[in-house]
Amino acid sequence: MLKLLKILAVTLALGLLLPARGVIPVQNATYKDWNANSFWYSPWGKSGVHKGIDIFAAKGQRVISSTSGLVIYAGDIEMGGKVVAILGPKWRIYYYAHLHSINAKMLDYAGKGDIIGAVGDSGNAKGKPPHLHYSVISLVPYVWKLSTEKQGWKRMFYMNPADSFV
Questions:
Q1: I want to staple 97 with a disulfide (CB 3.0 to 4.6 A). Which of 12, 70, 80, 85 is the partner?
Q2: How many distinct structural domains can be found in the chain?
Q3: For residue 105, which of 122, 114, 56, 42 has the smallest C-alpha distance?
Q4: Burial class of residue 2 (count of CB atoms within 10 Å of its CB; 0-12, 13-18, 19+)
Q5: 88-130 pLDDT, tens digit each
Protein backbone atom coordinates (compact mmCIF):
# COMPACT_ATOMS: atom_id res chain seq x y z
CA MET A 1 0.00 0.00 0.00
CA LEU A 2 2.85 2.39 0.83
CA LYS A 3 4.46 1.66 -2.55
CA LEU A 4 1.19 2.52 -4.32
CA LEU A 5 0.94 5.80 -2.39
CA LYS A 6 4.51 6.68 -3.38
CA ILE A 7 3.74 5.96 -7.05
CA LEU A 8 0.63 8.14 -6.87
CA ALA A 9 2.57 10.96 -5.18
CA VAL A 10 5.30 10.86 -7.83
CA THR A 11 2.70 10.76 -10.63
CA LEU A 12 0.87 13.75 -9.14
CA ALA A 13 4.12 15.69 -8.72
CA LEU A 14 5.28 14.96 -12.28
CA GLY A 15 1.92 16.11 -13.66
CA LEU A 16 2.19 19.36 -11.74
CA LEU A 17 5.69 20.00 -13.14
CA LEU A 18 4.62 19.79 -16.79
CA PRO A 19 4.47 23.20 -18.51
CA ALA A 20 0.90 24.33 -19.17
CA ARG A 21 1.43 27.09 -21.74
CA GLY A 22 -1.15 26.69 -24.45
CA VAL A 23 -2.25 28.26 -27.69
CA ILE A 24 -5.52 29.99 -28.49
CA PRO A 25 -7.75 27.01 -29.33
CA VAL A 26 -9.49 28.50 -32.38
CA GLN A 27 -7.35 28.47 -35.50
CA ASN A 28 -6.41 32.03 -36.59
CA ALA A 29 -8.13 33.61 -33.56
CA THR A 30 -6.53 36.51 -31.70
CA TYR A 31 -7.06 38.17 -28.34
CA LYS A 32 -9.62 40.43 -30.06
CA ASP A 33 -12.00 37.47 -30.57
CA TRP A 34 -13.25 37.31 -26.96
CA ASN A 35 -14.14 39.66 -24.14
CA ALA A 36 -11.33 39.54 -21.56
CA ASN A 37 -13.86 40.38 -18.81
CA SER A 38 -16.13 37.40 -19.54
CA PHE A 39 -14.27 34.95 -17.28
CA TRP A 40 -16.16 34.61 -14.00
CA TYR A 41 -18.80 37.08 -15.17
CA SER A 42 -22.02 36.99 -13.14
CA PRO A 43 -24.95 36.59 -13.59
CA TRP A 44 -24.62 34.05 -16.39
CA GLY A 45 -27.67 31.91 -17.28
CA LYS A 46 -28.27 28.57 -15.58
CA SER A 47 -24.64 28.20 -14.54
CA GLY A 48 -24.75 31.46 -12.55
CA VAL A 49 -21.14 32.39 -13.31
CA HIS A 50 -19.32 32.19 -16.65
CA LYS A 51 -16.47 29.79 -15.93
CA GLY A 52 -14.56 30.26 -19.16
CA ILE A 53 -14.20 32.48 -22.18
CA ASP A 54 -16.19 32.47 -25.42
CA ILE A 55 -14.02 32.77 -28.52
CA PHE A 56 -16.14 33.94 -31.45
CA ALA A 57 -15.42 32.67 -34.96
CA ALA A 58 -17.20 31.51 -38.10
CA LYS A 59 -19.15 28.28 -37.80
CA GLY A 60 -16.89 25.44 -38.89
CA GLN A 61 -13.62 27.22 -38.03
CA ARG A 62 -11.13 24.65 -36.73
CA VAL A 63 -10.79 24.15 -32.99
CA ILE A 64 -7.33 22.98 -31.96
CA SER A 65 -6.06 21.47 -28.74
CA SER A 66 -4.58 24.26 -26.65
CA THR A 67 -2.21 21.82 -24.94
CA SER A 68 -1.21 18.18 -25.27
CA GLY A 69 -3.11 15.58 -23.30
CA LEU A 70 -5.47 12.63 -23.09
CA VAL A 71 -8.99 13.02 -24.50
CA ILE A 72 -11.16 11.99 -21.55
CA TYR A 73 -14.50 12.89 -23.16
CA ALA A 74 -15.78 13.55 -26.66
CA GLY A 75 -19.53 13.66 -27.07
CA ASP A 76 -22.73 15.50 -26.24
CA ILE A 77 -23.96 17.05 -23.00
CA GLU A 78 -27.05 19.20 -22.45
CA MET A 79 -25.62 22.67 -21.84
CA GLY A 80 -22.31 22.34 -23.67
CA GLY A 81 -23.68 20.53 -26.71
CA LYS A 82 -20.88 18.82 -28.58
CA VAL A 83 -17.86 18.93 -26.25
CA VAL A 84 -14.30 17.66 -25.91
CA ALA A 85 -12.45 17.42 -22.58
CA ILE A 86 -8.71 16.84 -22.48
CA LEU A 87 -6.68 15.98 -19.39
CA GLY A 88 -3.46 17.93 -19.78
CA PRO A 89 -0.54 19.41 -17.87
CA LYS A 90 -0.82 20.31 -14.17
CA TRP A 91 -3.79 17.91 -13.81
CA ARG A 92 -6.08 20.33 -15.59
CA ILE A 93 -9.06 19.55 -17.79
CA TYR A 94 -9.24 21.64 -20.94
CA TYR A 95 -12.92 21.89 -21.89
CA TYR A 96 -14.12 22.84 -25.38
CA ALA A 97 -17.90 23.32 -25.82
CA HIS A 98 -20.61 24.31 -28.35
CA LEU A 99 -18.77 22.55 -31.16
CA HIS A 100 -20.31 22.03 -34.59
CA SER A 101 -18.38 18.79 -35.04
CA ILE A 102 -15.91 16.66 -33.09
CA ASN A 103 -12.70 15.20 -34.53
CA ALA A 104 -11.24 13.86 -31.26
CA LYS A 105 -11.86 10.37 -29.92
CA MET A 106 -11.99 9.32 -26.28
CA LEU A 107 -8.74 7.97 -24.83
CA ASP A 108 -6.72 9.24 -27.80
CA TYR A 109 -3.74 11.51 -27.32
CA ALA A 110 -4.23 15.07 -28.61
CA GLY A 111 -1.07 17.00 -29.35
CA LYS A 112 -0.88 20.75 -28.88
CA GLY A 113 -2.35 22.25 -32.06
CA ASP A 114 -4.15 19.07 -33.22
CA ILE A 115 -7.60 19.64 -34.73
CA ILE A 116 -10.21 18.38 -32.24
CA GLY A 117 -13.39 19.88 -33.71
CA ALA A 118 -15.05 22.90 -35.28
CA VAL A 119 -16.68 26.05 -33.86
CA GLY A 120 -20.44 25.85 -33.61
CA ASP A 121 -23.54 26.76 -31.64
CA SER A 122 -24.58 23.45 -30.06
CA GLY A 123 -26.10 22.99 -26.60
CA ASN A 124 -27.41 26.11 -24.89
CA ALA A 125 -25.66 28.26 -27.52
CA LYS A 126 -28.24 27.27 -30.16
CA GLY A 127 -29.30 30.37 -32.08
CA LYS A 128 -26.43 32.48 -30.68
CA PRO A 129 -23.39 33.56 -32.71
CA PRO A 130 -21.03 30.60 -33.26
CA HIS A 131 -18.27 30.42 -30.67
CA LEU A 132 -16.08 28.10 -28.66
CA HIS A 133 -16.67 28.07 -24.91
CA TYR A 134 -13.23 27.29 -23.46
CA SER A 135 -12.63 26.46 -19.80
CA VAL A 136 -9.63 25.24 -17.82
CA ILE A 137 -10.47 23.23 -14.69
CA SER A 138 -7.86 22.13 -12.16
CA LEU A 139 -8.24 18.79 -10.42
CA VAL A 140 -5.89 20.12 -7.74
CA PRO A 141 -7.58 22.94 -5.80
CA TYR A 142 -5.89 26.34 -5.61
CA VAL A 143 -7.19 27.15 -2.12
CA TRP A 144 -5.85 30.74 -2.16
CA LYS A 145 -8.36 31.52 -4.95
CA LEU A 146 -11.32 30.78 -2.64
CA SER A 147 -13.57 33.82 -2.34
CA THR A 148 -16.87 34.92 -0.81
CA GLU A 149 -18.34 35.98 -4.17
CA LYS A 150 -21.08 33.97 -5.90
CA GLN A 151 -19.86 30.36 -6.31
CA GLY A 152 -16.54 31.57 -4.87
CA TRP A 153 -15.58 28.10 -3.65
CA LYS A 154 -15.44 26.99 -7.30
CA ARG A 155 -12.74 29.60 -8.01
CA MET A 156 -10.29 27.09 -6.52
CA PHE A 157 -10.81 24.85 -9.54
CA TYR A 158 -11.32 27.23 -12.48
CA MET A 159 -8.39 28.97 -14.14
CA ASN A 160 -8.77 31.97 -16.42
CA PRO A 161 -8.09 30.28 -19.79
CA ALA A 162 -6.62 33.44 -21.31
CA ASP A 163 -3.78 33.28 -18.75
CA SER A 164 -2.54 30.01 -20.27
CA PHE A 165 -1.86 31.25 -23.82
CA VAL A 166 1.71 31.64 -25.05
A1: 80
A2: 1
A3: 114
A4: exposed
A5: 999 999 999 999 999 999 999 999 999 999 999 999 999 999 9
